[in-house]
Amino acid sequence: xxxxxxxxxxxxLKASPTPFHATASLALRLEAAGFQHLDERASWYTxxxxxxxxxxxxxxxxxxxxxxxxxxxxxxxxxxxxxDSPCLRVKPQPELQRQxxxxxxxxxxxxxLLAPWFDRDLSLAGRVTYRRDGKVESQLIDFExxxxxxxxxxxxxxxxxxxxxxxxxxxxxxxxxxQLADPEAADFRALITEQLARQHDFSADAVLDYELSFYDxxxxxxxxxxxxxxxxxxxxxxxxxxxxxxALLAAPDVESCVLVCNDxxxxxxxSACGADGPMLEQVLRRVLSEGDAFVRTIQRSLxxxxxxxxxxxxxxxxxxxxxxxPKLNAGPVIKINSNQRYATNxxxxxxxxxxxxxxxVPVQSFVTRSDMGCGSTIGPITASQLGVRTVxxxxxxxxxxxxxxxxxxxxxxxxxxxxxxxxxxxELP
Length: 429
Description:
The chain is 28% helix and 27% strand. By secondary structure, it is of the alpha/beta class. The chain has 2 domains: 2-85 and 233-424, Aminopeptidase, CATH 3.40.630; 87-216, Aminopeptidase i, Domain 2. Strand 7 and strand 8 form a beta hairpin. Its cofactor is Zn(2+). It is an enzyme of class 3 (hydrolase). Zn(2+) binds at residues 82, 156, 401. Keywords: Aminopeptidase, Hydrolase, Metal-binding, Metalloprotease, Protease, Zinc.
């Protein structure tokens, strides 16, 4: 099972270079399992025992099973994650021609570790909006092959490279795509038009706009002398999206279960499809009883917010509180912060710990050092939007927000097992 789950994650990561592709990949897997797509612009008819999913902006997705037991009686079991990861986004007018090279101007999305982006084989993917036959349409594209690189400056020309060199995103991050012969002009929209024709077999009249991101073409892999690790891009947080999906598909149909994967977590979640927006509440209000019954249902419910946790790094162990250093392959981590950067409380933490113990899943705790700042997740945001009790958890990882992150190869199976048990749990605290 562990090997199958890991390979499934690797395949999912490859198919999901952007939040748009991740949402499409999740939707395909849901439809194959009998989930019905609901259009937010149409009327819905749902029934107990039904399986449904909703997307918004092509980059956020909510999937849910309506249990045979009334949600008003048993509450709903929610697992939350996010589809986006730090990356380099192409600017609207990106063409740069310097020293005979065709480059693209980029904007840094989220809190990316920038140094690992140098000297990687990069491709480009995302959503394109275009005009065809007088109509405005959109499609996903993925160049798939390496088409760009950001070469490092040789150590001979940058003697400070190993001494804390500050990277200037405006000047040093534009990837190189090609050499141009004078007086050849670079035209990025023409490049997109050609890709649309190759990938979707039609000719667009005009490319109107796009949301395109560079990504590393190196596939994720199980690595290490004994295969102890999974290395890959976007483990934060597609790993949790994939684990949540596997748990939802395996869950029985007795209780009402929800998987929500929001976009824009890495930039604050404030959007129509982000956790700080109305999407989740609007979907739940359309399928649950209204008024007093809605509030009663939410108060009987629980959200497991699943987002990666910081494992204790052997070279930087002093960056952790000495009693709270999660280890790779030692199970999911309960994340706690008294200033509400995480939404965990003693009741929700205790319930999650109980689930782990009951299902023989190892569990750990994380509290950041008292002299360091603490990151956050969709947990406190969703809790404050919906009023639902929440526990923040995640699998331990190294190199979070790098172009290539590292997790334990045993931990995915641990997370899927406990999330499946959560979806099946007859009683919530």
